[in-house]
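Tutorial, part two.
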Amino acid sequence: MPFDVVGRVLDNQDLGGGYFLTTIDAPAIAGVCEPGQFVMAGSTDPTELLLRRPFSVCLVGPGGGGARSAVAILYRVVGRGTGFLSRLVKGDGAALLGPLGQGFSMPRAGETPVVVAGGVGIAAFPFFLERLAAAGRPADLLYGGRTAADLPMLAWLRARAGSVAVTTDDGSSGARGLVTGPLEARLADPGARRDRLYVCGPHPMMKAVAAIAARAGVPCEVALETPMACGYGVCVGCVVEVHDFHGEYGRYRRVCVDGPVMDASEIRW
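Running the prediction step on this input gives:
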């Protein structure tokens, strides 16, 4: 059951390149949140920002209520909602609803977790990487961005992933090219066929990774990103088309309730 709370900002880090990491004290949400879930975040004043915006829970950490009482959200400023959050300072209030949606599954015995992230899609994974490392299952990370400035938290990730391969469109960091390049090279090795992929990023990237995973016969979970008005299934504004036509909405599933994490093979890309 989600909690609707007013959390107090503990920290708001400008990571450069338009990216921000905002940490908010919200013990009720942080205490039960699972990797891959999200929150709806916004203003306590609806005249300032009417609708909240969906954000992956990037990290869960210490706050005023103990070691697991704050949630951090990572985002790039692109509009009114993210602009509002980027201007918050320590002590300001933020309206949070969560945790919402379905999270990632843990890899099965013998599987190697491989995270494939594009740009701000990395926001879905730091909490999950910490969970995997704590379970003795550190993930390999394939991380792509347009430029070096579009790889937020890279140093943090290098310290916690099993291995990190970086690509950028312009070659300003790592190898020049798309993140699908090192993924295809990896899956060409028969020894990698026990990988389990976890993916978040731009829709074309996720579609391409889903196709690569299908050809290689490896399981693939995607954390979908869609506009949302409510976050809990009422507005039906975040649907995605799937292959299975059963269910309340026929060939559609609500990303906020049935996702955001879904099996890539279920989606009609």
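The chain has seven helices and 16 strands. In part three we will examine how such features are distributed along the chain.
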